[in-house]
Amino acid sequence: MKARKLFCVVSAMVAMLAQTTRAGDATGPIKVFILAGQSNMEGQGVVSMDDPKNYNGGKGNLVWSMQNSPSAALMKHLKNEKGEWVVREDVQISFKVGDKVRKGGLTVGYTGYGGSSHIGPELQFGHVMGDFFKEPVLLIKTAWGGKSLYVEFRPPSSGGKLGPCYTKMIEEVRAALAQLKDQKYELTGFVWQQGWNDMCTAPAIPEYAQNLVNLVSDIRKEFGMPNLPVVVGELGNGGPVKQGSMFEFRKAQEEGTKRISNALFVKTTDFARPPELSPNPGHGHHWFGNAESYFLIGNALGEGMQKLLTSAANQGGK
Which of 138, 241, 252, 279 has the lowest CB atom count within 10 Å? Predict the structure, then answer.
């Protein structure tokens, strides 16, 4: 009995020490990440809708994936012991949709649809970053469907007409940072998941690599971060291809990323799932709405960012 009582006392002391440590860690500067792109960054992964006609009976949605997909074991942290979606308060999100900014703890639903109907890469990316840092994390998401780097996101250094989405992205990031007021923060990384419209615009593919280089250069200059870590997610929709515009576009994505210092290209073709096991079999441009695909993309982007940050820390740059 004495041994058991001693064990309980020690356990309580360890728990108190852990809580004190976490409280101390929370005083560090907020780690801020910009997540930008078009509809696949907005998030098209279906959470729970399972209508047989419109959502294939729920196959491939997040609820189904947490029970039936190859990634089911990796997704367990998304729900608590009561079966509710976890809300992670140490990782906050700011995402403007239309005229409204949605802010709060990391959970499902931070997409262009409102409510909790869909997820994007931000969900698991946020979990990876939240686990990596002791300090709080803020994800600022700026994404709009159907926008190209060739036109709408066109950065200043590319010449021609400045893209309106580039301007909106900078404005929304600055507005979100302003909301932090006196809180200390550190702009820690930029994540880019985009490309479908450039792939579908013949003149855009030859320009894409340089436009991507220019985009990162201009963002780094805008925020005074010349070595800001950058992760670029491959347009992996549909899985591997050996020819055609998708093949050429992916090469341009990878080439552009390789020309950027402190940047990493993340391949995503392995995350494609068949339409018959997905909620939206006709939406290849949106990974067929498959939640596992979006979860794995977010995980890979997070691991890529973690790799860059770890490398910087090992070199004394963190």
Answer: 241
CB atoms within 10 A of CB 164: 14
- Whether the CB-CB separation of 265 and 234 falls below 8 Å is answered with yes
29-314 adopts what CATH topology?
Rossmann fold (3.40.50)
SS3 (DSSP) at 60: coil
Pair 36, 48: CB distance under 8 Å: no
Domain ranges of the chain: 29-314
Pairwise CA distance, residues 268 & 295, whole Å: 11
Is residue 118 within 8 A of residue 48, CB to CB? The reply is no
Maximum CA extent, the chain: 79
Q: Please tell me the pTM assigned to this model.
A: 0.91
Instruction: Render pLDDT for 55-91 as a digit per residue (tens, 0 to 9).
Output: 999 999 999 999 999 999 999 999 999 999 999 999 9
Report which of 305, 309, 312 is spatially closest to residue 34, judged by C-alpha positions: 305
Residue 34 pairs in a beta bridge with 140, 190
Q: What's the CA gap between 177 and 172, in Å, rounded? A: 9
